[in-house]
Each structure stands twice: as structure tokens, then as C-alpha cells.
UniProtKB/TrEMBL annotation:
Organism of origin: Flavobacterium fluviale
Name the UniProt record assigns to this protein: DUF4239 domain-containing protein
Protein keywords: Membrane, Transmembrane, Transmembrane helix
InterPro entries assigned: DUF4239
Transmembrane intervals: 12-29, 49-66, 183-202, 214-232
Length: 259
């Protein structure tokens, strides 16, 4: 398992694969434990199983918290971007009607590119293309504002527009960087193997006792898989159960400025 596999595979598929591997590992552990118990004719509960389970849940909680924090950061950046674009659109009203019309036309195109930026989903090429188009339009807006700043008549308006455009350009970089900042794949891979190993030890420990409570074993495997599922889901805002559809609606609502 590698980073490319984790990123390209749906979260529910990874969680299901983990669940199956944990069940299989638990069964193999049970067989191994039974074999050793019959060979040594002793029943024993291994104390290190509890310590491993505690370690696993600690790491799961840490990783889930990391995913939740980054999801919240992405959500705030989307809302912030909508507010910044809205401010820039309003400041175009400070210019004469002819210039204002040019600004508003470009802002309308810019809003559409930012809407498309999210609607392309997890398609990496689509994301880069939409981001590139928005950069072209923002550069056009910046060039116009810079040119108008040389005219004393438009100086006051441009002093308001330049900071708004600067913030608008900067926030796109923050948003793209935020989407790339995910839970390190190495941590997820470690959790995957640790959970599988602990499932083996759980079955092994129960096998040494001579009786396996499969309800507990299956429940444990299911719980771990569900936590991993939602951890991955939070870390993928463009797909899955938990996404950024509602925050992105604030950018879609900017269309109302051009009606």
C-alpha cells in the first residue's frame, strides 16, 4: 500500500479492505492461539493486547483530530474567499460606469472559474486547469487596476481596489495549499498495519483461552474501520459523505451580484 493507492481509492473501499483484513488476521490469530494452547496444554491471556489496543485508539483519535482540524480550515478558507471576492466586486462600483462594466464582466468570469474549481471534483487536471483560468482573469483585473492607478481621477477608487484584488489572489493560493495539506499517508499506512496486527493478537489471545467471542472481535474490527473511514472522508473535501458543498454555496451565491 502506498500514497498513490490511498489517494486514488475511495475511502469506503479502504475501510472495507481494512475490515476484511482485520477479520482474516483475527481468524489466523485464533487458529495460531488454539494450536499453541493444544501443544502446551495451557490457557493464557496476553497482557500486551490491551496496551496495543490503547495505542491504536490513541493514534486513531490523533489522526481523526488532524483530519477534522484541516477540514475546518478548508471550510473557513472557502467562506473567506467568497467574502473577499464579494468585497472586490462591490469596490468596482467606485469607478465610472464604463470602467465599472469592464470590471464586473471580468469579475463575473472569475466567479464562474472559482465555481468550476470546486465542481471538477477530485480530478487533479481539472483543478489545475480551473485554477489556471482564475489566475489569468485575476491577472487581467490586476493589470487594469494598476493601469488605472496612474490616473489621478481613479486614484481613490484604485486605492480601495488594489488591496481587495491582492487578498483575492492570495486566498486562492491559501485554498489550493490547504487542499494539498492532508494527513500524511505514512500515518494512515501505519494505522492500517497496526490495526491488522492488533486484530491478529486479539484472535491469538482469545485462542490461547480456548474460546473466541466473535461478537467482540467483529465489533472491534468494525469500529476501527468506521473511524478510519470518516478520517479519510474528512481529509477528502471534494468527495465522500463530508464535503464542502455548503461552504462552496457562498461562492455560487456571488452570481446574484450580476443579476
Amino acid at each position: 500500500m502506498n500514497a498513490g493507492f490511498l489517494d486514488q481509492t475511495e475511502a469506503w473501499v479502504i475501510a472495507l479492505l481494512l475490515f476484511i483484513l482485520m477479520i482474516v488476521s483475527s481468524f489466523i490469530g485464533k487458529i495460531t492461539g488454539n494450536h499453541i494452547r493444544k501443544k502446551t496444554d495451557t490457557e493464557e491471556k496476553l497482557p500486551e493486547t490491551s496496551a496495543l489496543i490503547a495505542l491504536l485508539f490513541f493514534l486513531l483519535a490523533f489522526t481523526f483530530g488532524m483530519s477534522g482540524e484541516r477540514y475546518d480550515s478548508r471550510r473557513k478558507v472557502v467562506v473567506e474567499e467568497a467574502n473577499i471576492i464579494g468585497t472586490a466586486i462591490l469596490r468596482s462600483d467606485l469607478y465610472p460606469d464604463s470602467t465599472r462594466a469592464l470590471f464586473r464582466k471580468d469579475f463575473k468570469d472569475y466567479v464562474e472559474t472559482r465555481i468550476a474549481y470546486y465542481k471538477v471534483g477530485p480530478n487533479a487536471q481539472g483543478i489545475l486547469k480551473a485554477d489556471s483560468l482564475s489566475q489569468i482573469i485575476s491577472a487581467k483585473l490586476w493589470k487594469r487596476a494598476a493601469s488605472l492607478s496612474k490616473d489621478p481621477v481613479n486614484l481613490a477608487a484604485t486605492q480601495q481596489m488594489i488591496p481587495a484584488l491582492n487578498d483575492m489572489i492570495d486566498v486562492t493560493t491559501s485554498r489550493l495549499t490547504g487542499e494539498k495539506a492532508k494527513v500524511p499517508p505514512s500515518i494512515l499506512v501505519m494505522l492500517f498495519f497496526l490495526a491488522t496486527i492488533i486484530a491478529f493478537y486479539g484472535g491469538y489471545s482469545e485462542g490461547r483461552k480456548g474460546k473466541v467471542d466473535w461478537l467482540v472481535q467483529v465489533g472491534f474490527c468494525l469500529l476501527v474501520s468506521l473511524v478510519l473511514l470518516f478520517t479519510l472522508d474528512l481529509d477528502r473535501p471534494r468527495r465522500g459523505f463530508v464535503n464542502l458543498d455548503i461552504p462552496n454555496q457562498t461562492i455560487i451565491d456571488l452570481r446574484k451580484n450580476f443579476q
